[in-house]
Design a protein that fits this description.
The complex is a heterotrimer of chains A (267), B (340) and C (258). Chain A is 76% helix and 0% strand. Chain A has 267 residues and is mainly α. Chain A has one domain. Chain A is globular. Chain B is elongated and about 80 Å long. Chain C has one domain. Chain C is 76% helix and 0% strand. Chain C has eleven helices and no strands. The radius of gyration of chain C is 19 Å and the shape is globular. At the A-C interface, helix 2 and helix 9 of A face helix 2 and helix 8 of C.
Chain lengths: 267, 340, 258
């Protein structure tokens, strides 16, 4: 595997230069970050306004919804910042830049991930704001307690792992199809949007789809059942972590299978 | 094969499966699930070995299999059959180990980070290739003397000119001090000055630093000025492997000669009864071919491998009083064309 | 005739991607389906006013299909792109006014999206849900007018966004703000009458309700046809503004020398 220290150092260089190049235009940087955060919040506001008017969606309050939203945003932000170009593998396949990465003495996935670091400050702002807002309220009302904080952090990390695994598996399909944008809209954009709401509002076929086919439900919904509602028990969190690791292993397998296919056919 | 070879290639094959596109309704979807394909042999039965310190030109028309070979040598593609050894190791099986000993430059695309300053790209690469900061400083120092990297040190790669970018790219491939360099069309699209500076650099890398270099190009000047050995690939097969000089001789393209006579001249044949071109035998050596005739001059061609220049002059001077002679050596470009 | 050629070229250019776009519709349908599920969930506990559950699913289905007419225009009508490449100077040199030129191209795009996005998406919802459909031919006619005006408004707004890029160099964020406003103020997900009062009064000072909310109300036979007058007024105002901006743009480009 990859030695951890060089990996960390690489990201430090990437983050530093990405910050430097964007800070060149300070005003633009601050303005666009603030706007990104506002636009992100508008999406939540849309649903929050409905709940403000009608109370709850099948027993879920606006704070619980904010919590789901925030977890999804933060998990996605971690995944898309650290593995930005996994999502853009299509470009590499079309323009042949993948060959370039194959000349490096490191695993190709590592080379791909360190091609780019995307600084998503707007998303971080929106996600943290929503998370603190909703958790504070639920703590005050006694719905959450001190242990909820480490649970939540664990959930964000395992969520990021799940989203990364789904993204990697989708990207790997590109070794056969080259075009992956349409598939990504389904497995990433639509799925991530769907899991911003409690899955039981969907008919059972769709709910099963988001639990077993494109398992975004494990990012926030499943562990929230325990953390927010105390349903099932702590083992639900363990299952979530287990699922995220299993998905990670499977998607890595699929990736290397796809890569070896690429190397033997050179599509 | 010699035991001290740095690169050995033995009976290398690469087939590509091309799926046959369907036509008609839902063609896109049906092609996706199609099992129909035909096989194209991109590289067919290629063997060669390269000694340390050689500078080799690898040439051939587009689609001949040059890039496919380079990709197999660097572990990007796996061969269908046959064997590649880079310093004794197979790049297909131990890609990462081999990659650490190679520098690879693709002229068409950059290996640098598009939005980052050149310097940052080197920092990242140094991390990847486990080059210590001291080593990096020292190597950059050496490369800076050769390439003048300082002038664009802090410039983002996207803002570099093509020539600067190529210099930065070549330097990037040398950061880990590899023994072997693969260059895929390093001079493509460059202006004359930039080409010249890249060539000067490559020559000193080869002659002073002892790097083994394999270069593909469409620019025959690259080959003539740099390489001591040429390999020609055509339709996946190696059609020539030897020196540039031998290649010239083997093809034996004719030298064009225009002779201007001082006064009237007499051809050894009767022009009115003969159609041009006409071959005049010279001793037992070969022929001088007459191409054009006007009232003061004659255009002839002859193969200089068969007939020496002096023999040709002696024959021509028997036709009349020679005033002036223009000789055109065959262009290397044309030699290559006849080989393809 | 020129304008028709521009439009049909834009339409035909898209045709080559239609297989991918039809596949993409699956994801688009899923988005609207999720929104409908939210309303169905809410409707189980409370009554949904004048709409009812069936009305709200019909509402979502119609807005989701209409988005491809009045929601998803080419970003800034492609002006930011041509400012970056310098193409804008060439476009301004042509003997055609930039505004109708870009507008006809965008109408081609809208026509394509209507055929290959709106119609298939709505048909899928029609199969999935029990949708309300207008009973009077006059409603169909009024809906068509409302949608055409909405498309026109969307083109104008995007033209404004695009033209400002010559001053700001970065118009991405304006485009995204526009999208956020569509989410909140155009009735994309919540009918406007259910917004808090201050937001309601705010949005009736903007063209946003005429993009989705007004056409949808008319289609569902809940809104009065005379609200189209509002659409018309906005069309006139925005057209004048666009023409004014083009003058300023021409001046600016001439000063800069392209």
């Amino acid at each position: 595997m990859i030695p951890f220290k060089p990996w960390l150092k690489l990201y430090m260089i990437l983050i530093r230069s990405s910050l430097q190049s964007r800070m060149q235009y300070k005003f633009n940087f601050i303005l666009s970050t603030m706007l990104a955060a506002m636009i992100q919040i508008a999406e939540f506001l849309m649903v929050a306004l409905v709940l403000y008017k009608f109370g709850a969606i099948r027993g879920w309050t606006v704070y619980e919804l904010g919590y789901l939203f925030a977890i999804m945003t933060l998990s996605k932000t971690i995944y898309r910042s650290l593995a930005s170009d996994v999502h853009h593998l299509e470009n590499y396949l079309v323009e042949g830049q993948l060959d370039q990465l194959l000349t490096r003495p490191v695993p190709v996935l590592f080379a791909l991930m360190t091609q780019n670091f995307r600084l998503m400050l707007g998303e971080i702002l929106q996600g943290s704001f929503l998370l603190i807002w909703s958790m504070r309220h639920m703590m005050n009302s006694g719905q959450l307690h001190a242990m909820s904080i480490p649970y939540t952090l664990l959930m964000i990390l395992s969520g990021a792992t799940i989203l990364f695994a789904i993204g990697l598996a989708t990207a790997s399909a590109g070794f056969w199809t080259t075009r992956i944008q349409e598939l990504q809209t389904l497995t990433e954009d639509a799925a991530q949007t769907a899991a911003k709401y409690p899955l039981h509002i969907y008919p059972s076929w769709l709910k099963s789809f988001f639990l077993f086919v494109v398992p975004v439900g494990f990012v926030n919904y499943v562990p929230s059942l325990f953390i927010l509602h105390g349903e099932y028990g702590l083992w639900l969190l363990l299952i979530t972590v287990g699922v995220s690791l299993l998905l990670l292993i499977l998607s890595l397998q699929f990736w290397s299978y796809g890569l070896s296919k690429y190397q033997s056919t050179g599509s | 094969m010699s035991t001290e070879a740095i690169i050995e290639v033995h009976e290398l094959h690469k087939d590509f499966k091309l799926s046959v596109a369907k036509t008609g309704a839902f063609s896109g979807i049906r092609t996706l699930f199609s099992r129909d394909y035909r096989i194209r042999q991109a590289v067919h039965n290629i063997s060669f070995s390269i000694q340390p310190g050689e500078f080799i030109g690898y040439i051939g028309p587009n689609g001949a299999g040059k890039s496919t070979t380079i990709k197999m040598l660097s572990g990007i593609l796996h061969p269908t059959s046959g064997e590649v050894r880079i310093q004794g190791t197979s790049p297909g099986q131990h890609r990462r180990q081999v990659a650490a000993q190679l520098g690879v430059v693709f002229g068409q695309r950059s290996q640098l980070w598009w939005d980052l300053p050149v310097q940052d790209s080197y920092d990242i690469l140094a991390q990847m290739y486990s080059v210590t900061p001291q080593q990096l400083r020292q190597r950059i120092g050496t490369l800076n003397d050769l390439l003048g990297l300082e002038e664009f040190w802090k410039t983002p790669v996207r803002k570099l000119s093509l020539g600067q970018r190529m210099r930065a790219d070549v330097a990037a491939s040398l950061i880990h001090d590899p023994d072997i360099l693969f260059l895929d069309e390093p001079t493509i699209g460059l202006d004359i000055a930039a080409k010249r500076s890249i060539r000067v650099l490559l020559r000193s890398l080869n002659q002073e630093m002892g790097k083994t270099i394999l270069l593909t190009t469409h620019d025959m000047d690259d080959i003539e000025q740099l390489c001591n050995r040429v390999m020609v690939i055509n339709q996946g097969e190696l059609t020539y492997d030897g020196t540039v000089q031998q290649l010239r001789e083997r093809i034996g393209l004719p030298t064009l000669v225009r002779v201007i006579f001082q006064g009237p001249f007499q051809l050894p044949i009767n022009l009115s009864t003969t159609l041009l071109p006409f071959d005049i035998p010279v001793k037992d050596l070969g022929f001088i071919r007459i191409l054009e005739v006007d009232d003061r001059s004659v255009l002839v061609e002859a193969n200089r491998q068969e007939i020496k220049a002096m023999d040709m002059l002696r024959e021509l001077s028997t036709w009349g009083e020679v005033d002036d002679i223009h000789m055109n050596e065959p262009l290397f470009e044309d030699i290559i064309h006849t080989i393809y | 005739m020129l304008y028709f050629t521009l439009a049909s070229k834009a339409y035909v250019r898209n045709l080559q991607y239609r297989a991918a776009h039809l596949l993409h519709n699956v994801a688009s349908v899923l988005f609207g389906y999720m929104y409908a599920c939210i309303w169905i969930g809410i409707g189980e506990e409370t009554s949904l006013g004048a709409y009812g559950v069936q009305g709200m699913t019909s509402y979502i289905a119609f807005t989701q299909a209409s988005l491809w007419i009045s929601g998803f225009a080419t970003m800034g009508l492609g002006i930011p792109q041509s400012v970056r490449t310098g193409q804008i100077a060439l476009d301004l040199m042509r003997p055609v006014h930039l505004f109708p030129h870009l507008m006809s191209r965008e109408w081609g795009q809208i026509a394509y999206q209507f055929t290959y996005k709106s119609i298939p998406i709505y048909l899928i919802y029609f199969v999935l849900f029990d949708l309300k459909v207008p009973r009077h031919w006059s409603t169909w006619l009024a809906t068509c007018c409302a949608l055409i005006l909405a498309g026109y408004l969307s083109i104008c707004i995007n033209y404004v966004i695009g033209v400002t890029s010559i001053w700001t160099t970065e118009s991405n964020w304006l485009y995204w703000t526009h999208h956020a406003l569509i989410n909140l103020l155009a009735g994309f997900f919540i009918p406007i009458e259910w917004l808090p009062h201050w937001m309601q009064s705010l949005c009736w000072f903007m063209p946003y309700p005429y993009l989705l909310y007004v056409p949808t109300r008319i289609y569902l036979e809940l809104g009065a046809i005379h609200s189209l007058i509002g659409s018309l007024i906005w069309c006139v105002l925005l057209t004048l503004f666009c023409i004014y901006l083009t003058k300023r743009l021409r001046l600016k480009v001439e000063v800069q020398g392209g």
